[in-house]
Amino acid sequence: MTQEYHSLSLAERAARERAYMARSGIRVLINSLSGGVDSSAVAAISKQAAPDGAVGLILPCSTPEEMKGERLQDVRDAQRVADHLGIPAVTIDLSDLWQQAVALFSAAARELAAKAGIPLEEERLRWAIHNMKPTLRIMAAGFFADAFRGLIMGTGNGVEYFLGYFSIRGDGVSDRQPIRDCTKAEVRALAAEAGLPEDLVNRVPTAGLWPGQTDEGELGFSYADADRFLVWILERHRTTPCLTTTLTVREDAVADILSDPGLPVARDVARRIIDLNRRTEFKRRAGDLEAVLELRGMAPGGADGEAR
User: Fold this and answer.
1) Is the pTM of this model over 0.90?
2) How many domains does the chain have?
């Protein structure tokens, strides 16, 4: 299968954001910096789009023990990104707020479970506790967007969006999503294009939700495999429609996809990718497929469409 697509460059993505800002009268772009390659690439786009209006937030949210190790390195790496790009940034430690919310909400959840007679799974409660972190971060970013009449820049890439591997109560509600059509490799290329240090470009992806957590460890497959599958299935869809408008694999296409001799990853990996994609359809919206195809130059009109 011949792959024909164009991934927009850093300058092209910045131009799109600059045009949107001009149309909407926006001057400030709010970037949450984690030290990871996705937020770093988006910050680079923001800086080119708004040289005097790109600002950064560094938002640690962990236990005191974690802040002495992995999460402390996150803060340091995030500041390195801000310094490299010349983006003014402030650090706001959300850890105390998170721990207060954990105590308050956990107690209320147990009380509600008892009153309603609904079982409360401890494993699910722990997940909710960790997943509160991106919600608090987007709340902070929203405050600054309101205060400065700015826009929150989302950091979700195309592979994570296809997999539903993002928080709809976190980064999913950002105002702009400048890398939502990108594979992970393409995000790394954008970061490299911005001249970011190699260790940041190739940093191990993690949401930092708990100690030792990595994206690939949680997903159960590599980003390289996910990249290959996404590019392949978008190409396949052009000749053999297999995706819905919500960028979801059609149920009636699953068997044919898994038996396709051109499948670019192991069958068990493809099955897991498809399962994740189908289980998370509720996180995506009608028109997502068409938007991604247009951005990647795989639809009539090329890459001139407007990113959402």
Assistant:
1) yes
2) 1
